[in-house]
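Handoff note, outgoing to incoming analyst
You'll be picking up this chain. Sequence as last confirmed:
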Amino acid sequence: MVVLVSFFSIEARAQLFQFKGTVTDISNGHSLSFATVYLSKSKIGFTTDSLGRFHLSSAYRADTLVVSSVGFKTIEQGITEHTKFPLAISLTPSDYNLNEVTVYAGKNPTDILFKKIIEHKPENDKRNLESYSYEVYNKLQFDMEDVSEKLQHKKILKPFDFVFQNADSINGHTLLPMFLSETISDYYFTRQPKAEKEIIKSSKITGVKNQSMAQFTGSMYEDVNVYENYLSLFKTNFISPVADNGLAYYKYYIIDSTVTLHSKTFKVKFKPRRPSENTFVGSFWVDSLSFALTDIEMNLSAKSNLNFVKDISIHQQFEKVRGRKTMMSVDEMEVHFRLPEKMFVVVAKKYTSYKNTAVNENAIHEIFDDRISVKLDGKVLQKSEEYWAGARHTQLSAQEKETYRMMDSLLNSKAYKHYHTVLNTLGTGYLTKGLFEIGPFYNFYTKNNIEGTRYRFGLRTSNKFSKNLMLYGYGAYGTVDNRWKYNGGFLYMLGKTPRQTISADFISDYAYGSDHFNELGSDNVFASFFRKDIPMKTVWMQSEKFMYEKEWLIGFSNKIILQHRSLLPSWDYSFQPTTESNKIKNAPITLTEITYSARFAWQEKFYTGEFLRTSMGSKFPIVELKYTRAVKGIMNSNFEYQKLYFEVNDKINLHFFGRLEYNIAAGKTFGTLPYPALNVARGNETYYFSNYAFNGMNNYEFVTDHYVSAMITEHFGTFPFRYFPLLQKLKWRSVATTKILWGGMSTANKKANYNNEIHIPESTPYLESGVGIENIFRVIRIDAFWRLTYRDLPNAAKFGVRASMQIGF
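Most recent structure output, in case you need it:
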C-alpha cells in the first residue's frame, strides 16, 4: 500500500501542468503588477510580479484562467490542450477609470484625501523630527535572471558550469546569485544642528575584502523618502506620488478601505497623467487620523528615461513608534537592469529593516562629538557566523545561504582568477605580476610634434609587496627629441582611517597629465587620435616634491607640499623685469615653493584601495583653499612670490529643471614672474570635450596674475526631446555649458612679459558657450560651442564640435 501511494504521489507530481504568462494594461501596454491570477478548477492563485508575470502549476490541463486587478475588468480565459504558453493577457480599464466624474474643485473625495496628506506631510516626514535613531539591517543581492542557453554554452563560461547547475527557479524564472551583502548599523539624525551619522557595526560581502565598500551597503547610501517632492534614483529625479504638486502629475483613486480598533485606512491607487515623465504607478494605504502612509507599493512608469534599467519596484511599510510618530519599518527595492542582446537580466534586491527606533531623545546629540558621518567599526568585516545568526533582523533563505557557499567556490576557481586579472588590467591599465604591477598600458605609446613617437614603460609595487608602502616610476623616450625622461616616487600610509600619508615624487619630463581621474590627459594613446593639428606647447619640468597629507575627519583635510622645480618652455619666450639680474630668454625658470592647502568636502564618500582612492562625490559643495610661498636663493631659486587660490565645486539638484554643476575658481599672484609661472588658463587642444578646460582656448593663450573663472553646466534631462514622440524613443538628453574667465595683470608683470604672445582677459572677459546632446547610444555626448569673445586671435576656434564618452543612468 505504501509503495502504491508513493507511486501515485510521484505520478501526480509528474502530471503537473505549467501555466505562464504576462498581464498588461490594454490602454498603454504597461505591465500590471499585483494582478490576481487563479485557476477556477484547482483554485490555485497567484499575484503577478513587478513585471506583470505569473507562473502557476496545476494537475488539470484544461481549466479556466481568471485574471483580475483593481480598476480593471475581470476576464476569464479558457485553457485547452492546444493553448500555447506563455500567455499575453491584456486587461481593459473599468468604466471608473475611463470615464472620470467631473466635480467642482475640492469636492472629489480622493482630491480631499490627497490634500490632507500634503497638509500633514510636515508632521509625518521624519526629516522634521528633532532627532531619531534606529538599528538598520540592510541586505543587498544581485542575481542573473533567465540566463540564455546560448550564453551558458559559450566556451568562455564553460569553467563556470557548476554555477549554472546551482541556479534556482522562482516564479518560473531562473535566478543565478551573483553577489550578496549584509550590513548592520546604527543610524542617528538631528535637525538642529542638521547632522546625520551611521556607525557600521558589521558587514558581510561576498568576495569583497575592501572595508571601504561597506559604506556603500549601509542605510545612507540609497535612502528613498517618499515624503520628499522628488526622489533621486541613480542620480535621476522622479516625482514622488505624494509630492506637494502631485495632482499635476498623477491621477488618484480610492479603491479600498479597512477599519481597525483605532482608525480607518484608505487604499489609494495612483498612475501618471503623462507616462513619458519620470513618475511611478502603484498604490498606498493612508491612515485617516494622522494622514500618514502606512504602506506604499510602486513601480517605475513604463516610459521613464533611465538608462540600462527595465523596472524599479519599491515597497515600504510604516509603524507607529510608541503609539505616536509613524516611522518606516521595512524598505524593499528591486531593480531590473536591461542588458544588450537579451542574454540575461541582472536583478538587484535591497531589503532594509529597522528596529529599536527612538524619536526626539536628547541622548542622540552625544553621538555627534567626533563629527564623522560614516564610521566603520575596526573589525567590520571580521564578525563570526554566531554573531550574524543572532544579529540579523531576519534569517537568510536557503538560496541566500547557497549564494555565500557558491561565491566562495567561484572566487577560488582558477578561471575566475584569470578573468578577474584580465578585467582588472583593462579597467586600471595595470597588470599585476607578483610584487609588481606593470602599466599603465594606455601610456606605453603616444605621438606628438615635440617628441615624435613616445615610448614609455612604468612599474609600481603591488599590495603583495606592502599594504603601507607603494613605490612607483617610469621611463620614457622620444624618437624626435632623442631625450630620456623619468619619474619615480613613493607613498607611505601613516594611517588609513582617517587618511594620513607622506610621499615624495621626482620627475624629469614634459608636463603632461591631468588633475581629474575622468579627464583625457595628453600622455596616452587615445590623446594622439583626438589632438588638433596645431603646434603643441608644453614645458620641460624637473621637479622634486615632498608632501604630507592629514585627514582630520572625513571631509576635512590638509596638505603641506615642499617643491623645487625647474621649468623650460618648448617655445621661445623672454622675461625682462626692471632688475637686470633677473632677465631671462629661453632659459629655465627655477622655483622653490612651500604650499599649504585645506579641503572641505562634507559627507564625501570614497572608493578606497590600499593606497589610492576615488571620490564618489558629496551632496554638499567641495571647497579648496591654497597658499603658496616661494623663497628666492634656496636651491638656485630665481624668484620670490606668494599665491592664493580658491575653488568651489557643487552639483545642485533642480528637480524638474534638471541638474546644475558649477566650478568657480579665483587666484592671485603677488610678485613679478615669467608668464609660464603665473596663472595660465587651461585650454583644450583636442577634439575631446573637457569639463575642466576652456574648449575654445589654446594652451598658454591667456595669462593673468589675478583672475576669477566660472564653468557652468546645466543638464536638462529629456527636455525638449520628450515632447516629440519620435525623438522621445531615442532617450536623448540636452545639456548647455557656459565658461568665463576674467582677470588682469599688474603693471610690473605686463612690462616684464611684454615681448611674448599672450593675452589678458582684462577689459573684456573670455567667454564661450555651447549646447549639446548626451546619452546618444547611452554613452556618447556631442557638444557644439561658440567662442564669443577674442574671436580674431591667431588659431582661435570661433566654433567647434567636440565629442566625449560618459556612462551613467
